[in-house]
Specification:
globular; 14-stranded antiparallel beta sheet; 14 strands; mainly beta; Porin
Amino acid sequence: MNNEIRLIFLLVFSLFLQTAIIAQVETETDAGHLTEEESESDEPFYRLGSQRTWPFFSYLNDPGDDASTLGIEFESYLNIGQYEIKNISYFEVNQYPRVIPGQPNGNPSGTTDVVVPADGINDLLMGFWFARKGKHHGKHHLTGGFAAMFPTASDKTLGSDKFSLGPSFDYEFESGRWFAGAIALQVWSVAGPSDVKAVNMLMIKPFVVFNVVERFDLIYMPYGISVYWNKPEGEKVYLPLGGGGQYQIPLGKKTTLNLGLQFFENVIRPTKGTVYDLRFLVEFVL
């Protein structure tokens, strides 16, 4: 019961933080009264673009191993001279009954016979992508950058205990009712204890949004397609198939609340990995 209370508390705290951010954005908008041209010429150094909260539940072959996770994701932008830097920062609060191979990101060890439960946060995963201002897409938009993973996990089974770096790409396609693309990153461990397994992970986070009617979209936004290159054959890959929908609720002048629900089956997965994921979305787009 204590674990459920902690998860609810963190979800409520996340929603409180989102509400405070929205209030600040709306206040600044009302106080500024800037025209569109003035806004473009007076862009802030830092801007929060969206905040996503992902409560999701993972189902395994043994019902006693089912796990719950609260993912927190921030998407923000930095303006430096003629360049815009997009950043996505992601971490999770996990409640695991045992080590789950490949879950969460950055756990390269995954001794599958461990049954001791672990609760806490995982490694912080961040991506940075660079683009010139005014070069944003027609239908296609591709930017390059880098990814970094930091050993912030509160339990050794929830993280890598390594600092990891590597290249990353962000591709977006937008046309009519379609908005789709993917973020791809490859990270290798570059520092950390020598007696801990190295990180060699590919993560692809695709997204597909199709607007059916006003305010309602069909969506495919999975946890991610991941490949752990250092693991044995048959234990390397997670490939989720599924999807769901989301409903858009306008809040204030510039803010939208997206509420979504999706269901996935990992059709390719490690032997003792997650079989199904039920994934909720609470997203504030600013």
